[in-house]
């Protein structure tokens, strides 16, 4: 087999395996990597390198593998945009954590978010109490968006990157 075709097929197989692995084991958002997550990423990249390029340690082999990964990711994003069923398979839906000041404990448990973590995120949005939250949503990117009521019953929307390592089971 052509060595570049071999690298292409190996790289695609590793890419698909990683997508599946992230879907099964949950996904930490890149903005919230802790030391363990960074170590895991480094070890995974080292473990799959040979699976992608095999014995070819040339510059061309590495560039072909990288190009295939870029193209696969680009293609997957386009496919997800055009086909909602594929998007559902790969990405979770947003989860409502608080609605009109009422905490959704089932959603917190499903998302593996503690009440303390939610309260911290609400305070980061400038809201003192969960009862003052009109809507808090765990977005698909792992951030928590908060829409709150102010003293005049006006709605305020803020969105911040989460500070804690909030894991989402996808």
From TrEMBL:
Its main location: membrane. The lineage of its organism: Bacteria, Pseudomonadati, Bacteroidota, Flavobacteriia, Flavobacteriales. It is found in: Cell membrane. This is DUF421 domain-containing protein. InterPro entries: DUF421, UPF0702_alpha/beta_dom_sf. It is a multi-pass membrane protein. Belongs to the UPF0702 family. It comes from the Bacteria. The keyword Cell membrane applies. Keywords: Cell membrane, Membrane, Transmembrane, Transmembrane helix. PANTHER family: UPF0702 TRANSMEMBRANE PROTEIN YCAP.
């Amino acid at each position: 087999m052509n060595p570049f075709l071999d690298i292409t097929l190996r790289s695609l197989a590793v890419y698909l395996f990683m997508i599946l692995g992230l879907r099964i084991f949950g996904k930490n958002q890149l903005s919230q990597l802790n030391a363990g997550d960074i170590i895991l990423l480094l070890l995974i990249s080292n473990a799959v390198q040979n699976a992608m390029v095999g014995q070819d340690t040339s510059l061309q082999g590495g560039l072909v593998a990288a190009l295939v990964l870029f193209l696969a990711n680009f293609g997957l994003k386009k496919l997800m945009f055009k086909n909602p069923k594929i998007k559902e398979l790969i990405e979770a839906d947003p989860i409502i954590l608080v609605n009109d000041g009422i905490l959704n404990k089932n959603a917190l448990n499903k998302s593996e978010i503690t009440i303390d973590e939610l309260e911290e995120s609400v305070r980061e949005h400038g809201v003192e109490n969960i009862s003052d939250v009109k809507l808090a949503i765990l977005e698909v990117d792992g951030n928590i968006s908060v829409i709150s009521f102010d003293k005049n019953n006006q709605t305020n929307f803020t969105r911040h990157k989460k500070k804690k390592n909030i894991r989402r089971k996808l």
